[in-house]
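thought: user wants a sequence for this fold. calling inverse folding tool.
action: design(structure=
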């Protein structure tokens, strides 16, 4: 399936000309290996894919014993895979390189040699056990790969025309109109249910069956649990507890992750490493509280107060509903109609977080629970900084609303209190685009343009 990251691979090939090794990192089953091998097939005269999930000890020994003689190293590699290699026309893929860290550290010498291009793929790439006792090469250029976005989902469905129209309407600040907006929301709800994991999308495209896609997603969730058991070491029980608790926490009114749900009198220090483990594995997107809407959002963050979103909303739905069985047709019907009562807010907000992260934003929210002064008591779902920094007006507050009936008390108080710091205020909702009293109301499917 067509993925936008392919263009990023092309730019790397033409601009770096072998001076770096590209590291494509992302969650398991996000499509890294597939897209990199497609790139190799299309853009190189030959390639070798070294899959460290199933490579032989003989190949591993090359990285352990033969790096001091690269002529011999490459002769043995070509013989092992029966693939010729051509100077500056061949690619060597180190797939799932986190499983063999010494190969990752060898990149320094392979890139310096200059004969071939190199791409690594990896999940759990920064987990402590996978970087122990190796020197991370400075020649490595990391890029993140995320689940398929809405436009890629539409491409998979064979729809190449709707998203350019959506982009044009966003840029011109015009609504799509009733008919096209309804069509866009129908397709977007399909995307929310299926999610962006390529195997689930492929199954849905083939079968047009949400249950078939759900079975794929459950296999991925089980794979994540297996990874936790294998790689989270002494923290695996805490990591698994957090992972299983995410849907319940997102159903809270303010979505804050309450450690007390895991253990009475739980302290943050006991759970900070497990929380960061899931984030490093790109299984979740952590969103941190920031106390001031200034350009340095990170400088004012409170890491003890956070929200924990699933990296893929389709996985969240399978994770949240009917844990041990396929999600029922009644839930699908309500999701498609936007009538899933309280749970739609959780799903919309997770979807907004997913789209903001894939668009390059770090996630922050604002919360002030001032009990004495009502004008200070407010919560804003997300804060993002504009790309061009100015002396004032840099931060955009974002509220996410899952239904047509909602109040705007928090965002209006926020706009009044922090007028000098704020850029544009947005409300993401199921309706079409409009603007009123300094707030732009965007359909949820336009989040990626922010």
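)
observation: tool returned 450 residues.
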């Amino acid at each position: 399936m067509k993925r936008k990251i392919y263009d990023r691979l092309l730019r790397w090939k033409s601009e770096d000309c072998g001076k770096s090794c590209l590291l494509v990192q992302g969650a398991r089953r996000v499509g890294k290996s597939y897209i990199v091998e497609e790139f190799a097939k299309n853009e190189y005269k030959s390639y070798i894919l070294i899959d460290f999930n199933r490579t032989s000890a003989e190949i591993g020994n090359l990285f352990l014993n033969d790096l001091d003689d690269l002529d011999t190293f490459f002769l043995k590699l070509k013989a092992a895979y029966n693939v010729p290699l051509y100077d500056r026309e061949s690619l060597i893929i180190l797939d799932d390189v986190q499983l063999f860290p010494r190969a990752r550290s060898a990149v320094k010498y392979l890139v310096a040699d200059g004969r071939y291009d190199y791409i690594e793929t990896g999940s759990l790439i920064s987990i402590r056990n996978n970087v122990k006792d190796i020197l991370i090469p400075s020649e490595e250029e990391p890029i993140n790969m995320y689940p398929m976005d809405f436009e890629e989902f539409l491409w998979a469905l064979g729809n190449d025309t709707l998203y350019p129209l959506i982009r044009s309407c966003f840029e011109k600040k015009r609504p799509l109109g009733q008919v096209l907006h309804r069509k866009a929301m129908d397709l977007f709800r399909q995307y929310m249910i299926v999610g962006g994991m390529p195997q689930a999308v492929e199954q849905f495209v083939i079968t047009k069956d949400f249950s078939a896609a759900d079975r794929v997603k459950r296999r991925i969730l089980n794979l994540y649990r297996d990874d936790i058991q294998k790689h989270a070491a002494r923290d695996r029980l805490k990591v698994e507890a957090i992972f299983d608790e995410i849907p319940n926490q997102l159903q809270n009114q303010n979505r804050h992750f309450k450690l007390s749900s895991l253990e009475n009198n739980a302290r943050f220090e006991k759970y900070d490493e497990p929380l960061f483990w899931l984030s490093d594995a790109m299984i979740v997107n952590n969103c941190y509280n920031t106390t001031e809407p200034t350009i340095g959002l990170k400088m004012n963050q409170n890491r003890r107060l956070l929200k924990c979103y699933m990296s893929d909303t389709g996985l969240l739905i399978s994770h949240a509903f009917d844990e041990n069985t396929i999600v029922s047709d009644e839930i699908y019907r309500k999701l498609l109609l936007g009538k899933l009562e309280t749970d739609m807010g959780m799903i919309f907000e997770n979807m907004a977080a997913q789209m903001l992260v894939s668009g390059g934003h770090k996630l922050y929210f604002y919360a002030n629970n001032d009990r004495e002064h009502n004008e200070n008591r407010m919560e804003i779902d997300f804060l993002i900084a504009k790309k061009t920094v100015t002396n004032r007006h840099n931060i955009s507050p974002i509220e996410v609303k899952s239904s047509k009936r909602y109040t705007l008390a928090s965002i209006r108080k926020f706009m009044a209190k922090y007028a000098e710091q704020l850029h544009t205020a947005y409300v993401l909702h199921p309706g079409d685009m409009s603007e009123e009293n300094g707030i732009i109301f965007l359909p949820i499917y336009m989040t990626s343009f922010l």
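thought: summarizing for user.
answer: Here is the designed sequence. The mean pLDDT is 93.
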